[in-house]
Amino acid sequence: MRLINEEIQLATSNITPSIGNAISESFEAGFLNAGLREQIESCDRYDLANTFSDLFPNSQPVLEAGSGSGRWVAWCLRKGWRSVGIDWSAALCRRAGAEIPGSSFVTGDMRCMPFADDSFGGIISLGAVEHAIEGPVPSLREYGRVLRPGGVAVVTVPYNGPVRRVSRWVRRPLRGLRSWKFIRRLAGKGTGGRSLTVAKQSILEGWQADFLYDSTSGWNFYQYNLTRNQLRTAMSRSALEIIDEFVAFAEEGVLHNFGRIGGRWNPKANTVDLTVLGRVLLSLLPNHANGHMLCQVVRKA
User: How far, in Å, CA of 93 to CA of 146, rounded?
Assistant: First the structure.
């Protein structure tokens, strides 16, 4: 069932990755190398699957913004919900469209989406809006534009909570050493291109950012980790009102906050294999302080 014929009107849009080209290509390759069927099968175990089941039966069609592999479009279609995906990667959209029967995928930029106003009843946005160096506001405003009045969206971003802030402070000297050219040469890693100091000059003041190194261009902005207040402030600048807010993905929080001493990512199962210490940390740390992603459920008035 193709939606892009009657219900959803397309316009023109610039197609621009939010992050550096080399890093974008690496991100794309990671999705292409992962089996799509396994990703779709893991959806029912996802922390927010029940939230989606509660919200979207009466909030259709559903847009997956930053669809990547397209697994949530496939999951929605299995539920009998009308769904469309948008991603900057033409390769990912082509694969998803070919492998997911009855699906629709559009190549475009979430900050300037090629859809008419009031096109969707719901939006799924998982770990997407934080990748724009100017911040999430342009994407959130677009969500407000394309949602119908009363439409709902679920938005998640990496959570810069108390445990992550302490973890980053403890590991700050090590991160600094890893960016030194001398240390990188000793480790046999690249040293060319933009320095980390220069890359940091372009980010939003007071925001916590992650950076990745590319052998061609040097250090590049990758994503922001947001506090509750930062996401609330960004959301207040869109046409969306917050109806629920919570922190999720506790096991992934252990992994991201404590690294390999806490666990390892299992790509086949799309889960974290916790170590003994990781299980102890999971039991001791409250989810609202340790969880990996901050989630807001929002509505268009």
Answer: 20
Q: pLDDT tens, 112-166?
A: 999 999 999 999 999 999 999 999 999 999 999 999 999 999 999 999 999 999 9
Domain 21-160+226-249+292-300, CATH number (from 3.40.250.10, 1.10.530.10, 3.40.50.150, 3.30.160.20) = 3.40.50.150
Q: For residue 288, what are its two tokens? A: 């609202």
CB 125 within 8 A of CB 42: no
Give the predicted TM-score (pTM) of the model: 0.90
Q: Classify residue 25 as exposed, middle or buried by CB count within 10 Å of its CB (0-12, 13-18, 19+).
A: middle
- Give the tokens for residue 175: 């991160």
Instruction: For residue 99, count CB atoms less than 10 angstroms from its CB and return exposed for 0-12, middle for 13-18, buried for 19 or more.
Output: middle
Cis, peptide link before residue 61, omega less than 30° from 0? yes
Contact partners, residue 87, CB within 8 Å, separation at least 6: 66, 67, 68, 70, 93, 105, 107, 108
Contact (CB, 8 A) for 153 and 147:
yes
Question: Could you tell me the pLDDT band of residue 30, with boundaries at 50, 70 and 90?
Answer: confident
